[in-house]
Amino acid sequence: MADPSDRPTSLGSALNQALKDRHFGTVEVTLPQGRARAEILDSGPIGARVRQLEVEVPDPAPPQTQAHRLSGRLPGLEEDLVPVEVDPGLGGGVLRTAPEQLSGGRYHELELRGGRARLHRPSRERDLAAGELVLTRDALERLVDTLARGLDAGGDGAI
Question: Less CB within 10 Å around the terminal CB: N or C of the chain?
Fold first, then answer.
């Protein structure tokens, strides 16, 4: 019988636990507080290469609150994210790498739609590696939990 203390208590820890059994492909976890989904290019005991990451919560905060909470430096990212567009009428917004921190045409983009956030790394180049997020498993866990708290209406705003 499984020890209840082995059960993940957050979306980030659930995703991290799921990566122990799966080294590539789509990994999805669902808990009462939401859902996390990652397209994993490769993973190992220390880190993962991620094409995109999605986090969804059932009770989202307004888009302006989400954008405010998630602005700045997120775990595992090298650059600060700044709001580019936030439109409550459309129910979402976009945050991107701050312009002064752009490097070689690569940047991070966080799309907010309702209770869902999608993080990916577009590039103006055709470099295949440009679209990867390379994170330690600990940073990936903290990033997922930070996104979930930033999206959630019940979140305390402490990111």
Answer: N
DSSP states of 126-159: --GGGG-EEEEHHHHHHHHHHHHHHHBTT--S--
151 contact partners, CB below 8 Å, separation of at least 6: 34, 55, 56, 57, 60, 61, 66, 70, 112, 115, 116, 117
Specify the pTM.
0.89
Cα–Cα distance for residue pair 107/118, rounded to 1 Å = 14
Select from 30, 27, 70, 71 the least CA-distant residue to 49: 27
Task: Please tell me the total number of residues recorded for the chain in this structure.
Answer: 159
For the cut 60, the answer to whether the pLDDT of residue 151 exceeds it is yes
Tokens of 45: 């005991």
- Per-residue pLDDT tens over the stretch 83-139: 999 998 888 999 999 988 887 778 899 999 999 999 998 866 655 555 889 999 999
Tokens standing for 109? 């983009």
- List residues bridging with 152 in a β-sheet: 60
Could you give phi then psi for residue 125, rounded to 5 degrees? Answer: -100, 170
